[in-house]
From TrEMBL, chain A:
Organism of provenance: Camelina sativa (False flax)
Claim: Transferase is one of the keywords in the record: yes
Protein name in UniProt: Ubiquitin-like-conjugating enzyme ATG10
Keyword Transferase recorded: yes
Family: Belongs to the ATG10 family.
InterPro entries assigned to the protein according to its UniProt record, in alphabetical order: Atg3/Atg10
Record key words, sorted: Autophagy, Transferase, Ubl conjugation pathway
UniProt xrefs under Pfam families: Autophagy_act_C (PF03987)
UniProtKB/TrEMBL annotation, chain B:
InterPro entries named in the record: Atg5, ATG5_HBR, Atg5_HR, ATG5_UblA, Atg5_UblA_dom_sf, ATG5_UblB
Record note on quaternary structure: Conjugated with ATG12.
Protein known as: Autophagy protein 5
Highest taxon above the source species: Eukaryota
Domain Autophagy protein ATG5 UblB: from-to ranges: 208-333
Keywords: Autophagy, Cytoplasm, Isopeptide bond, Transport, Ubl conjugation
A Pfam entry, by short name: ATG5_UblA
Gene: LOC104735762
The family this protein is said to belong to: Belongs to the ATG5 family.
Alphabetical list of PANTHER family matching this protein: AUTOPHAGY PROTEIN 5 (PTHR13040)
Domain Autophagy protein ATG5 alpha-helical bundle region intervals: 116-172
Subcellular location(s) of the protein: Cytoplasm
Amino acid sequence: MNSGREVSDGRLTVEGFSVAARAFADKWKIHNQSFPPWSWVPLINRTLHLSNQEEGYLSLEEILILSSLEESPEDESLNVATDCLEKEESVDHTILVQNQENEAHYYDFHIVYSSSYKVPVLYFRGYCSGGQPLSLDVIKKDLPSCSVSLLHESKWTFITQEEHPYLNRPWFKLHPCGTEDWIKLLSQSSISTGCQMPVDLYLVSWFSVVGQVVGLRIPLEMLN
Amino acid sequence: MANEAVKYVWEGAIPLQIHLHKSDVASHPSPPPALVLAPRIGYLPLLIPHIKPYFKDSLPPGEDSIWFDYKGVPLKWYIPTGVLFDLLCAEPERPWNLTVHFRGYPSNILIPCEGEDSVKWNFVNSLKEAQYIINGNCKNVMNMSQSDQEDLWTSVMNGDLDAYTKLSPKLKMATIEDEFSRKASLSSPQSRQGATEMDVAGQIKTARVPVRLYVRSINQDFENIEDVPGIDTWDDISYLNRPVEFLREEGKCFTLRNAIESLLPEFIGDRAQTSGEERSRDDDNTEEADGLLREMGEIKLARIQGIEMKLEIPFSWVVNNLMNPEFYLHISVLVKAPQR
């Protein structure tokens, strides 16, 4: 890695992750308004009284999925319910349950930096309105069918249940093997000047692949 | 060749007195506690075959889901037993009194454990991560044959250092040159051009060291270590799983203190600051400088493998002698928080 503005080996520094995260959150807010925005959670560590604005993770929480009883093969995104009348900017994007027949499942997603592997990792969890955690089998039923087959067929995506690095709770972790290798591939195909990828686009590119596994797609405009 | 310090580490053990939780007692009278010697480098679920026979006649009918607690805090089974002890017992308790549960697994707090397989998976995963940090890739672990991986795990489970020493060279982990000894202790040639030849198991100046830091913070000084209150939840502990960047500077020794401070730069060391204050670069006013110093955090105690470490020890020695079999160095630290 040379200037820090570009990534050439598929890996990110911790500073690069901060930059990439904010760029990702900004683009998401502009282009992906059917979802609430991602927020940056700084690593304010209670026991150490750290106030470290440089390090943190991205958080997207309380995404409501209505377990749909119908198969909808065309719609490959999550069946997200949104309140279209909500026009004000507010932190709490209240999402209404439209259909009482179906059990409401909520999902939290965190994009966390791994200092060991120098790549981002996706953590997620699902829970009912009462807070009870959902098992992976139940979660898979909420995912669009193409995501589930990606999970089963691909040799490189693994979902394991591990402790969240900062929250002392079990979460599911999606860790694609060889992230740096396929990021390098993505860089090669998109930019003519060798394997350089601007840091700003790192998470967008990363999420364009990883997000699909958990049924979160991003609009193509975000990749510009 | 395993050296003496490594032998001590592998032989380290903690006497446990394990009590069956009263809600699991279906017999009268309740069974006496089980006494078990737990290897420091081992893991609590591996003790279950030794513990269960003591209690099986007392258990209510049904399936077991086994977990341990210390003073009400559920114990994370994937942390080596020795580390749990060093971290949770400010004043070492001998025997260490733990409670075992066979029902009511707290799955909202602890990740599930399916016996030895889960512990082995966790070990191999940590080994891969450590190798990635040290070598820049984990291909040696990935390329290890299934039976070699099995044997390596078995050697750790059984505390068999001889078997482990025969197998671990297959991992081809780069090593750190001990800073205090002038001559290289390995006979293989040193790589002089920097750490590019990662497949050669020689003395290479590796730049990143796998460390797991467990930090307990207190607000005041205590006369005696036994006066430090116990933790109520794991939220009282800060856990940092991040590599130490090992700095090699001419004429300077990179100490354990340097290593710990590099992981907590906002807290102690040069970059310490309290919230709401600007970092002052040019501090001519000595009074103000003293004030800042008083407000900095302080490392009160650092324990590794049960040893209370002198912080000025060369970090290279600590790593080479006190790391766990998965190549991670686990450090339990008690710090005094910066005063505001």
